[in-house]
Amino acid sequence: EPEVTQTPSHQVTQMGQEVILRCVPISNHLYFYWYRQILGQKVEFLVSFYNNEISEKSEIFDDQFSVERPDGSNFTLKIRSTKLEDSAMYFCASSEGFMNTEAFFGQGTRLTVV
Amino acid sequence: AQRVTQPEKLLSVFKGAPVELKCNYSYSGSPELFWYVQYSRQRLQLLLRHISRESIKGFTADLNKGETSFHLKKPFAQEEDSAMYYCAPHTAQAGTALIFGKGTTLSVSS
Predict the structure, then answer these.
(1) B70: closest CA among B95, B92, B48, B44?
(2) b/e per residue, A78-103, with b = 16+ CB within 10 A?
(3) Which residue of A lies nearest to B99 if distances are taken between CA atoms?
(4) Interface contact A42-B96, CB threshold 8 A
(5) With contact defined as beta carbons under 8 Å apart, do A61 and B97 qualify?
């Protein structure tokens, strides 16, 4: 069964460094998403991406964040200058459509900023 | 403002007891409603959606438009139901974003 895959599973980075989190969505899906979950808190929406551009973004998704689909298969989340409060689990998801369709989630990347 | 409320952070029940995880929403238009579940060490996955009118793993959810609720129910809880449950309303007005409630941890003990 096709799955959304994320790499790495765990990333440790120093404050101020740039990180890129990678995701391979399910191949025939058209909508892509990033979410984050700070330890002990809810799953928060960051951004959705369709037709090679951002569809929606939350208040969390500020100028330090960017997303890209560089090669038609990968979907990346870049955090330009990491802060301690960026430490969280980051989930990628994809779906065929956006209404009434299931979003499939990756296993997540745990980002630790030290 | 669009809002989804899951009032219970933690729900602890004994095996065989009925379970109801509450979800209330405040959304304009007619949202489609989903329940997602995250078992320990597993990825977030869809449990059920309102439009399908289905029962998955013994769980059902009824949309009550008057009360704007979409509570998740199961008549007899099992230990393997222990997980984090998220309610997620979705409307076209919200665009492509699927916004989750804060989640309820269900703990089923024997």
Answers:
(1) B48
(2) ebeebeeebbbbbbbbbbeebeebbb
(3) A45
(4) no
(5) no
Residue with tokens 């191949």: A27
Q: How many CB pairs under 8 A join A and B?
A: 58
For every residue of A33-95, DSSP letters joined together read EEEEE-TTS-EEEEEEEETTEEEEE-TT--TTEEEE--SSS-EEEEESS--GGG-EEEEEEEE
Beta carbons within 8 Å of A19's beta carbon, 6+ residues apart: A11, A13, A78, A79, A82, A111
Q: What is the pLDDT of residues B77-97, one digit of tens each?
A: 999 999 999 999 887 666 777
- Over residues A39-65, the pLDDT tens digits come to 988 899 999 999 999 999 999 999 999
| Closest-CA residue to A58 (of A35, A75, A76) | A35
CA–CA separation, B98 and A50 (whole Å): 14
* Identity of the residue in B44, B96, B97 whose CB atom sits nearest the CB atom of A105: B44
* Residue among A101, A112, A111 at smallest CA distance from A34: A111
- Two tokens, residue B106: 């269900």
